[in-house]
Amino acid sequence: MNPATGFTAFFLLTLMLLAAVAATGLRARRRWHLTFVALSFGSLGVAIYYAKQLGQVYDLESAGRITAVHLTLAKVATFSFLLPVLSGIATVRNRANIVWHRRLAWSVLSMTVLSALTGVWMILAAKPF
Ligand code: HEM
Q: pLDDT for 63-105, tens place per residue?
């Protein structure tokens, strides 16, 4: 699969799986919630693999400041997935922690959508090698 197709396919799959994570969390389907969390992390890993290949096809520096904005946002969003994981474990132990889990989960999901939008902007602005 070429990098552009691979990245687009797995990034869209990741977004759909994250929507399933949110839907199962809201319906308190804990087993499915955790299954979709694992699947979305796996899919995100494959999307990142293709994103790195895509970075070799495009001259990302030519896109200007949006490249630094996107790369920072994407790294912060990826690492911040640790927050809903930790607060999710805390929620399993004590349901009162759901307030934090909910806030952190929506913040990380919003950051993921913002990363996607800035990523598309960066690729549209970049020149292919
Ligand atoms: C990408 C990571 C995750 C996201 C985006 C996410 C999102 C959500 C959302 C939106 C809810 C619904 C909160 C509400 O009722 O307003 C929820 C509930 C919950 N999540 Fe997560 N979650 C994630 C990971 C995890 C993990 C790793 C665990 C456990 C190890 C976990 C355990 C739970 C539990 C126990 C609930 C409450 C279900 C209930 O109402 O009984 N979550 N999650």
A: 999 999 999 999 999 999 999 999 999 999 999 999 999 999 9
Question: What are the structure tokens assigned to 60, written together?
Answer: 């990302």
- Its domain, for residue 101, covers 3-128
Residue nearest to atom 14 of ligand 1 (CA): 26
Alpha carbon nearest to ligand 1 atom 39, residue? 28
Q: What is the DSSP code string of 18-51?
A: HHHHHHHHHTT-HHHHHHHHHHHHHHHHHHHHHH
What total of structural domains would you count in the chain? 1
Q: What is the pTM of this model?
A: 0.90
Ligand 1 atom closest to Cα of 40?
Answer: 1
Q: What is the pLDDT of residues 17-69, one digit of tens each?
A: 999 999 999 999 999 999 999 999 999 999 999 998 988 999 999 999 999 99
CA 26 to ligand 1: nearest atom: 12
Contact call for residues 49 and 1 (beta carbons, < 8 A): no
- Structure-token pair, residue 36: 């979709």
For 128, the enclosing helix (H) or strand (E) is strand 127-128
